[in-house]
Amino acid sequence: MNKIVKPKSQMRVLTALTFKQMYAKIGAGLVGAIIFIALFGPLFAPHTFDEFIDAPNAGRSPQLLLGADYMGRDVWARFLCGGRSIIGLSFVSTILGVGLGLIIGLFAASAKARTDSLIMRGNDILLAFPQIVFVLLVVSGFGSSIFLIALTVGFTHAPRTARIIRAAAAEVMERDFIKAAIAVGEKRRRIILSELLPNVTSPLLVEFGLRMTYSIGLVAAVSFLGLGLQPPAADWGLMINENRGSMTVQPWAVLTPILAIAIFTIGVNFITDSFAKAAIGINRKGKE
Amino acid sequence: MGKIRNFFNQGGLLLFVAGRVLAGIPIVLALSILVFMATQALPGDAAVSYLANTATPERLEAIRAQLHLSDPIWLQYIHWATAAMHLDFGTTLTGETQVTTILAERIQNTLILMGSAGMVAIPLSIAIGVFAAVRRGKLFDNVSSLITLILAALPEFVVAIFVVFLLATNVFQIFPAIAFIDPGTLAWSRPDMLVLPTLTLVLAVTPYVSRIMRGSMIEVMESEYIQMARLKGLSERTVILRHALPNAIAPTIQVIALQLAWLAGGVVVVEAVFAYPGIGTVMIDSVKGRDLPIVQAITLMIATLYVVLNILADIGTILSTPRLRTKYARKNNTSDVFAAMSGDE
To answer: What is the DSSP string of A174-237?
Structure first.
């Protein structure tokens, strides 16, 4: 029983310490606002996202809060509807990638030295591809679909997460309670799940936040390059791409989605950074 | 410097470099297999998916022959890999142009862009990191920490669009938003076109390096030998520049190499924003046109660059860390064979 209660309470302490910091509070506000827009925005949209309302690039007016885009569709409506795909895809690919990386990392750390180094060498090879380049490579071979993009972005996260988790878990493996568990003859699965996993939660959460910011950047970049969702879909990345040419006359069609992406990534980074600081603080106390 | 020169003469570095380069070869081989698998070895027929609805039996046959699609996969790979070793990536699917001819000029433009970004970003981020560490907890430190935290969060195309909005189209109209560089001329003939893409990459790379530099510098400044240097009565300037900085740089070198490797990926998106005529724009166009030979060639080159940068970073770390330097040099001294090979001493 003790074993299960302890990591939970440590988690609670960490969360409390994280959100005591000002940046974490600001970050939570920013992230919350954007998630709210992404989830519930479509309910508040005054028009559908693909209706032609006004002249192309029409300016702001009482009817059109942010004017019309390059085809004469309501920018505000498209903005409210365009967050779901990007935020949703980023979440999915982050969970996939960090999950896969976690499994690889824990497996490698608890494996025999030879298996461990074999896995990590293979892992290092995958690191040679910049994430966006690998995503483009796969898209060029298999064509673009949003599921493939989420999957590939996730896949490119995995070796990076695996490296971090393995390093953290390898340190834990040296501790006495693991040696005790091995000596008692506990199964490897049990050691991984109930001994290793609870002890790598702080690097795991920091990694999750970091990967989330990269996911959004990648998913948005792929749509921005015209390889993600296809017109007439409303998607922040696609909006930026479509309206970039008329930015001088109608800046809102570009600025709104880009500010939303910026606010979200900055918010996530604020929380991640505060969490990392809190985790370092706790570790230092533990050592003293 | 004398010690470094000595180290070169002993052949220790040579031996180390040779070892690292040899270890790099199987990695590059593995990379080439991966690149090949991710594209050519499709579950369907690459020729059909490439031609889509314009496929006629004759055209399909032509493309199949060009990609050696009727051969077994391993044979296809060997065809492709042996040609690639001679820097021959075949012809593009759309025309008869050699992939290598298309890329030759573009690569130079991309290297010019990456080089100018690196030359600005590295000294700048070292300076910011050192200054923030020295002024720890003061205004400069707090402001630069906040700015780097924000910049580190932003995807590079977001930074690129902000830069265009601020300096090219809406707020100020100082620099061109699109890099018009005549084909046949290299990018440095038009430095004004280079400013915004370079600025974007600098803003993307600087936060990471400067944050690591700051952390490393703080750690060094708290060490006993810095205290000693101060107690000796050295000026703070000498303490920082001569005693702290060289020791703080070593851990940063790996991060700099990683960031330069990241630049090779980031440059793809940034080039696309500015329509900069480098390999990034070619890559995007080829992905859209599903022109596999070009995509494969560019991906393999970028991945190889990563391996090369990592080797360079390892060498740089050893050169900048006296402890490692002597360790590798000594290893060499004990071996007569290598001492004879170096010949100098």
So the answer is: TSHHHHHHHHHT--HHHIIIIIIHHHTHHHHHHHHHHHHHHHHHHHHHHHHTT-SSPTTS--HH
| CA B277 from centroid of its chain's CA atoms | 18
Predicted ipTM beyond 0.90: no
Neighbours of B56 (CB within 10 A): 9
Distance CA A74, CA B326 (A): 67
* A205 contact B CB<8A: no
HSE value, Cβ hemisphere, 13 Å, CA-based, for A146: 18
d(CA A277, CA B199) in angstroms, rounded, equals: 30
Q: Of the candidates B181, B184, B182, which has an alpha carbon nearest to the alpha carbon of residue B196?
A: B181
Burial of B6 (0-12, 13-18, 19+ CB in 10 A): middle
- Distance, in Å, from the CA atom of A20 to the CA atom of A205, rounded to the nearest integer, reads 17
Quick check: A52 and A58 in contact, CB under 8 A? Answer: no
Q: What is the Cα Rg of chain B in Å?
A: 25
- Select from B30, B161, B307 the Cβ nearest to the Cβ of A258: B161
Q: How far apart are CA B286 and CA B269, in angstroms?
A: 14
Does B169 sit within 8 Å of A221, measured CB to CB?
Answer: no
Q: DSSP letters of B142-210?
A: HHHHHHHHHHHHS-HHHHHHHHHIIIIISS---S-SS----TTS-GGG-HHHHHHHHHHHHHHHHHHHH
CB contact (8 A) between residue A224 and residue B162? no
A149-179: per-residue pLDDT in tens? 899 999 999 999 998 888 888 888 888 888 8
- Nearest-by-Cβ selection for A247 from B150, B156, B169: B169
Walking along chain B (345 residues) 10 residues at a time, the average pLDDT comes out as 58 75 85 80 56 66 69 78 76 70 82 89 90 86 89 88 83 76 70 84 89 87 86 86 84 82 85 86 84 84 86 80 65 42 36
Which of A244, A245, A243, A256 shows the shortest CA–CA distance to A72? A243
Comparing alpha-carbon positions, the chain A residue that sits nearest to B310 is: A128
Residues of chain A in contact with residue B266, where contact means CB-CB under 8 angstroms, are 130, 132
Question: What is the interface size between A and B, counted as CB pairs within 8 Å?
Answer: 137
A247·B40 Cβ contact <8 A? no
User: In the structure encoding, which two tokens stand for residue B195, read together?
Assistant: 């400013």
In angstroms, what separates the C-alpha of B295 from chain A's closest C-alpha?
Answer: 7
Nearest by CB to B170, from A251, A258, A265: name it: A251
Q: Min CA distance, B179 vs chain A (Å)?
A: 14
State residue B193 phi and psi, 5-degree precision: -75, -20
The nearest CA of chain A is from the CA of B310 a distance in Å of 10
Closest-CA distance of chain A to residue B338, Å: 29
Chain B CA closest to residue A240: B161
- Determine the Cα–Cα distance for residues B236 and B117; give it in Å rounded to an integer: 31
Residue A140, amino acid: S
Question: Does residue B12 contact residue B328 with C-beta atoms inside 8 Å?
Answer: yes
The answer to whether the Cβ–Cβ distance between A128 and B31 falls below 8 Å is yes
Record: contact B306-A269, CB cut-off 8 A: no
Of the candidates A171, A163, A193, A168, which has an alpha carbon nearest to the alpha carbon of residue A181? A193
